[in-house]
Amino acid sequence: MSWQRPALLWTAVLAAGLGLWAGHRLTPVPAPAVSTPPAAKPPIPVLRAGDALPALVLPGVDGQTLDIRQRFSGRPLLVNVWASWCGPCIEEMPELARFAEAQGERGVQVLGLALDTPEGVADFLQRVPVGYPIVLDTPGPRDASVQLGNAQGLLPYSVLFDAQGRMVKAKLGPFEHGEIAGWVE
Fold first, then answer.
1. Exposed e or buried b per residue across 108-128, where buried means at least 16 C-beta atoms within 10 angstroms of its C-beta
2. pLDDT single digits (tens) 13-35
3. What is the Cα–Cα distance from 8 to 109, expressed in whole angstroms?
4. InterPro entries, from UniProt (predicted)?
5. Are 56 and 68 in contact (CB under 8 A)?
6. What is the DSSP letter of 70?
7. Tell me, what's the pLDDT at 130?
8. Which string of DSSP letters, residue by residue, matches 15-44?
9. Going by C-beta distance under 8 Å and a sequence separation of 6 or more, which residues neighbour residue 85?
10. How many other CB atoms are there within 10 angstroms of residue 7's CB atom?
11. Cα separation of 138 and 116, whole Å?
């Protein structure tokens, strides 16, 4: 009888272990919760010659919002996208300022679109003042530059719109001295 007790004890331990194992294996595992990914935003169409100026309302350096379509309608518009940390952008700013000043009240309007911080732009404009309006936007995959056709996201980027607000052409890279006047014609 003494040999039966350890055997009985081992049998009970083995049965309990098998029972736990079987219970674990046979218990249905709940399916993982399926999370629905957020709806993807539709891609921004690439702006092409003949396309209308997108509806852009952006803050100016003074903090006041500016409706680009409304403010610049009726005359050709050259939008120059830049940033205070962009070397080629900085080099072309005096050329853009001279061009804008030479246009007067009837010529091509110039708008600077800074993909930058308000502080960065304010500091830059104190050193290199320009006489044309500047608006601000935060760089990102759907920023105003992308909406204006800058699919590569490189700077500087310029786009010309006719008096009816239709895109005429775009340029990636800085303007050379004296190039702008010939480019907008």
1. bbbbbbbbbeeeebeebbeee
2. 445 555 555 555 555 555 555 56
3. 98
4. Redoxin, Thioredoxin-like_sf, Thioredoxin_domain, Thioredoxin_ResA/DsbE_sf
5. yes
6. H
7. 94
8. HHHHHHHHHHHHSPPPPPPPPPPPPPPPPP
9. 116, 120
10. 9
11. 6
